[in-house]
């Protein structure tokens, strides 16, 4: 079949599975990103996230992840919630309100690849969702879906930045989308000015070792550094400050994905209820939630840290 026919099949199938955006780029080595990533790692901005140092070559070249890869398909799925937390409770990043996105999107990628094999023919590929050496945001920009903002997030002009990004690398060719060449951040510096820990730096650089999301999710130490006291603004799991202040997110629309419907406890538990939640109850309620990444002990550590801020 012709490339345009195959591309139409791909984008129709992606839409049917609920993805909000789908773009395609040629599978090539990302030389510019390689230099930026190397500089970022050399400055130890990954903190204790040593996994960021692994598989450097694979991060910058999709052909090392999928033999004979020809195309990188980028897909985006809106997670902006229709309901928000009560304001006085420990705050949780919006991406974690519902079911773990890894579980939801992996299944969608499996179904998408199966659909392509059914309609186009034998296609080999691998799907990735934020858990493999893939530079998702760079590929999203290369496939025309948006631009990388000063806060490091991929921003769409129509709907803001509250999106999960998934990548499907395949050994089939498609019509390739033009890269997104504009940058609509302009002179705005709201994300830099508002970051509670000054983790966002000029030049679209985010010091991961200073980010609240890093401290509350990735850091596995028993204690959060004392110098961070008074700076978390009641964030218990992740942080949305740089997205909440972004003017483009005034265009955010509630997600239509049922799996991301907020878990009632996330919206309604008070500070005291969080503090008195048992480990068994936590494991039951959040069995399929991103909160399980921090585990019960991590959440309790974060709560104690927030209490010291009061």
Short précis:
The chain has twelve helices and ten strands.
Span from first to last CA?
A: 64 Å
What overall form do the CA principal axes indicate?
globular
- How much of the polypeptide forms β-strand, as a percent range? 5-15%
Q: SS-based structural class?
A: alpha+beta
Radius of gyration: 20 Å
**What is the average per-residue confidence, as pLDDT, rounded to a whole number?**
92
Unreliable stretches: none
Total strand segments: 10
SSE series = HEHHEEHEHEEEHEEHEHHHHH
Domains counted in the coordinates: how many?
A: 1
Main beta sheet strand tally, sense and closure: 4 strands, antiparallel
Counting DSSP H or I runs of 4 or more residues, the number of helices is 12
Looking at the chains present, what oligomeric state does this protein adopt?
single chain
What is the helix fraction of residues, given as a range? Answer: 25-40%
Name the strands of the widest sheet in spatial order. 1-2-7-4
């Amino acid at each position: 079949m012709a490339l345009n026919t195959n591309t139409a099949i791909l984008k129709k199938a992606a839409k049917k599975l609920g993805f909000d955006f789908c773009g395609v780029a040629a599978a090539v080595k990302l030389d510019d990103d390689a230099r930026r990533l190397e500089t970022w790692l050399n400055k130890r901005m990954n903190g204790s996230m040593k996994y960021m140092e692994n598989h450097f070559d694979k991060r910058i070249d999709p052909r090392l992840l999928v033999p004979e890869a020809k195309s990188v398909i980028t897909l985006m799925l809106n997670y902006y919630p229709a309901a928000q937390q009560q304001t006085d409770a420990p705050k949780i990043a919006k991406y974690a309100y519902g079911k773990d996105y890894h579980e939801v999107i992996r299944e969608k990628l499996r179904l998408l690849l199966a659909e392509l094999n059914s309609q186009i023919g034998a296609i080999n590929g691998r799907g990735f969702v934020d858990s493999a050496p893939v530079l998702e945001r760079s590929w999203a920009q290369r496939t025309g879906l948006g631009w990388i903002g000063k806060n490091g997030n991929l921003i769409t002009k129509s709907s803001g930045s509250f999106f999960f990004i998934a990548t499907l690398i395949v050994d089939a060719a498609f019509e390739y989308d033009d890269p997104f060449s504009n940058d609509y951040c302009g002179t705005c510096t709201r994300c830099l000015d508002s970051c509670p820990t000054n983790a966002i730096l000029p030049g679209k650089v985010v010091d991961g070792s200073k980010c609240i999301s890093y401290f509350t999710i990735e850091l596995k130490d028993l204690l959060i550094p004392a110098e961070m006291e008074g700076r978390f603004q009641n964030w218990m799991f992740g942080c949305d400050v740089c997205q909440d202040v972004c003017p483009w997110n005034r265009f955010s629309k509630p997600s239509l994905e049922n799996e991301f419907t907020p878990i009632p406890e996330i919206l309604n538990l008070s500070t005291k209820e969080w503090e008195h939640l048992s480990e068994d109850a936590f494991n039951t309620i959040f069995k399929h939630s991103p909160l399980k990444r921090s585990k019960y002990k991590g959440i309790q550590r974060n709560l104690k840290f927030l209490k010291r801020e009061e």
